[in-house]
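Notes from the 1:1 (GR / supervisor)

We went over the backlog. Supervisor wanted to see one worked example end to end before approving the batch request, so GR pasted a single chain during the call. The sequence is below; no edits were made to it. Supervisor asked that the structure be written out right there so they could see what the output format looks like.
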Amino acid sequence: MDGELRALLNAVLERLDVQGAYIEQMRMDIVKLQGSVKQLEDKVDRLQSDVDAMKKDMDAMKKDMDAMKKDMDAMKKDMLGVKKDVAALKEGQVRQEKIMERLAIRSIEQEAEIDELRKEISA
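Structure output shown during the call:
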């Protein structure tokens, strides 16, 4: 019986060694998993930081776009004013050209009258 007890005890000890090795392997796996989880947490933190930075950049870009839109609206308004001014200048120029034509005709008529008066005086 002593041999049976020894065999049984050896079997139990062997089983405990196997269990111990299994537990040790599980501990190592848990340590690896903890390292992996820590790496994932770090990556998530970096991604969150990147997302936050991108949000800030997007907000700044939106503000810039709003300012540019206001500038563009002001420029459109100014352009409409310039177009109106150019149209008024063109209209004024046409009117001035007509006046210049009339003055030229009047000048020619006056020169003709002066020539006739000179002829009458010389005659």
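Supervisor's comment: The mean pLDDT is 94.
Batch request approved.
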